[in-house]
Structures are given as C-alpha cells and as structure tokens.
C-alpha cells in the first residue's frame, strides 16, 4: 500500500490471511461436498463432521478462519492507527471501497441465478448484506459484522490510546455479562446462541482481542519472541478447536457456547501476536512470497469459493470423485476434491477478481490518519497494493 494509506504492511499478516482463507475453503468443501458425494444435501444438525484427530478437526471446524480474519482486522487497524486521530468519513469510505465492489458483483450474480426478476426488497437486502440464502451468500453475514465494527473502531482505538488496555478488557467483561443477560432473558425454553454468535454482539470479542494483541505487540514485542511461545500459540488453537469439535460445539446451544467467541478470539490473538513478532517481514524466500500473494487475494478467495464449490457440488462431484482411489470414505474424497480441485480453481478465479475488480477501487482510497498524537513504537515498513481483509 502507499505510505499514506490505511494498512501497515506485514508479510506475516498476509500469511495468516492465507491460512484463514484456506481453512474456510477446506471447511466448506469437506462439509458440503462429503454430503453431495453421498447423494444428499448437507444438514448441519445431523451431518456435522467429527474426529478424534486434531488435524482433522482443524479442517472440520475451519469456520474458525472467520474468527482469525476478525482478530486480524482488529490487530492491523490498531497497529496502523494507534495514537493517531482517525478521519471518520475517509475511514468509512475506504472500508466501503474495500468491501463493496467485489461483494456487489458476487451478490448480484447470486441474484441472477433466481428465476424471478429482482425486487426492490432484494436490492435493499443486498445493500445491507442481508442475503445469506442466495447460492453464494453463505459468508455475507461476516461482512455485515465487519462493517459494524468499522463504525465503532475509531472510538475504540482512541479509548485504547488514551485509557490503555484496561479499558478494552473492561469492555470485554461488560459484553460477556450483557450477552449472558440476553441469553437468560430469552422467552424460549431452550434459547439459541446462533443470533449472538453470528452478529457483532457475539463477535466483538474477537475484534477487541485483536486490538489488544496489537497493543501487546507494540509495547512488549521482545516478550512475544520467547521460544516457548512459538509452539504454544498454534498448539493452543488446535487443542481448543479439537475440544470444541469433541463436544459438538457448533451445533450445540449450551450456555458455554456464549464463551466460545472470546476463547476462540483469545487463541488466535495469541497466534497473531506471536507469529508477527517472530517472523521477519521480508524473509522466507519464495514460500513466504507465495503465501503472501495468497493472503493478498484472500478476500476474493473468501467471497468466490462458494461459487466454485456450488459448481463442483452441482455438476462435477461425480467426475472428481471418479478420479480418486476406490473405497475412499466420502469425507476424505471431499477433502481431496476440495484441496486438489476447488482450492486451486478458487485461487485462480481470485487472482482475476482481485486485479479486475478489487484493485482499481483499492487505489481510490485516501489517507485517513492525522499526525501522531502520542509517541509511537516504530511501525513496520509498508508496501504498495496492500489492502484489508
């Protein structure tokens, strides 16, 4: 990105974006295509995949890539804006330029798959991201949550700069209490947690924890370089996801699920802070550059992978399955089809959509940060073309 733009360049962050995008693609591919290979539609309540293998549960619970994306949003915005005044109008304009162009293309294409002509209500739902039922809309709800976070980020960043991390920790505690009160006050005999989990009320923990990780990174970077932290951070994330899978957490409405967003955000905040602190921005050779390039187009991967999976599920599952060894369990077949067919195809499409649709609008963004109001820790170098999500 340009030095005046709104993102700090960190190659390690691009690596983590790539991880998040790949996890989401593998997760959706395994869950959806395994059912299609068996000749049926996927029903989460009864068809969720479980395993005692921690590596498998990382894929089966790959929806956690969304949490990683949200933690990264809080982290990168805060590293870039900490201690500086944010010009609110320009900030929101930049966010719209970041999200809306590709989102509108994908949403309108999904609308075009319907037989009937779109109504005004359909168009209004698209403008507000309220289109999860269309073929490619399974991830649109996260964009709505992101936009809600953008509305409050400048205030939260100022609070962090002026009041310190304790203010955000108290906010985390208050949100947890209020969320529990909402759940307890539900008139339903068995209150659902989905509405909380799929909205900012249930996900703000992850943005706040990303902001706190940025504060720790800025003030205690040397401590994050402790050798024992490097294996502990990813191990904690995998162990937490394995435990979540073993108790059938995603399809559960246990009150313990009210704590899941914070726990999930905490382990990813640890992973982000430790990885960024320990990974040189310019090192790693071609694998690092390749991962960074994938991370650069991760938003396109995120928005277009449903289109690719829908194509494979509707028209190519049988053919792709036929390429694989006989007697292969459906879940393994789905994993291989996703890894060898859906993921490469999605990445290829994403490079096209990034350069043709995203990048022209990204170049229209304007600086939104004023001069530093407090002394800052030196920030990492920046790069042309870097962008959010």
TrEMBL record:
<feature type="transmembrane region" description="Helical">
    <location>
        <begin position="332"/>
        <end position="357"/>
    </location>
</feature>
<feature type="transmembrane region" description="Helical">
    <location>
        <begin position="258"/>
        <end position="278"/>
    </location>
</feature>
<dbReference type="GO" id="GO:0016746">
    <property type="term" value="F:acyltransferase activity"/>
</dbReference>
<feature type="transmembrane region" description="Helical">
    <location>
        <begin position="196"/>
        <end position="216"/>
    </location>
</feature>
<feature type="transmembrane region" description="Helical">
    <location>
        <begin position="290"/>
        <end position="312"/>
    </location>
</feature>
<keyword id="KW-0472">Membrane</keyword>
<feature type="transmembrane region" description="Helical">
    <location>
        <begin position="55"/>
        <end position="79"/>
    </location>
</feature>
<feature type="transmembrane region" description="Helical">
    <location>
        <begin position="228"/>
        <end position="246"/>
    </location>
</feature>
<feature type="transmembrane region" description="Helical">
    <location>
        <begin position="167"/>
        <end position="184"/>
    </location>
</feature>
<feature type="transmembrane region" description="Helical">
    <location>
        <begin position="140"/>
        <end position="160"/>
    </location>
</feature>
<dbReference type="InterPro" id="IPR002656">
    <property type="entry name" value="Acyl_transf_3_dom"/>
</dbReference>
<dbReference type="Pfam" id="PF01757">
    <property type="entry name" value="Acyl_transf_3"/>
</dbReference>
<feature type="domain" description="Acyltransferase 3">
    <location>
        <begin position="13"/>
        <end position="353"/>
    </location>
</feature>
<keyword id="KW-0808">Transferase</keyword>
<dbReference type="InterPro" id="IPR050879">
    <property type="entry name" value="Acyltransferase_3"/>
</dbReference>
<keyword id="KW-0012">Acyltransferase</keyword>
<keyword id="KW-1133">Transmembrane helix</keyword>
<protein>
    <submittedName>
        <fullName>Acyltransferase</fullName>
        <ecNumber>2.3.-.-</ecNumber>
    </submittedName>
</protein>
<feature type="transmembrane region" description="Helical">
    <location>
        <begin position="100"/>
        <end position="120"/>
    </location>
</feature>
<keyword id="KW-0812">Transmembrane</keyword>
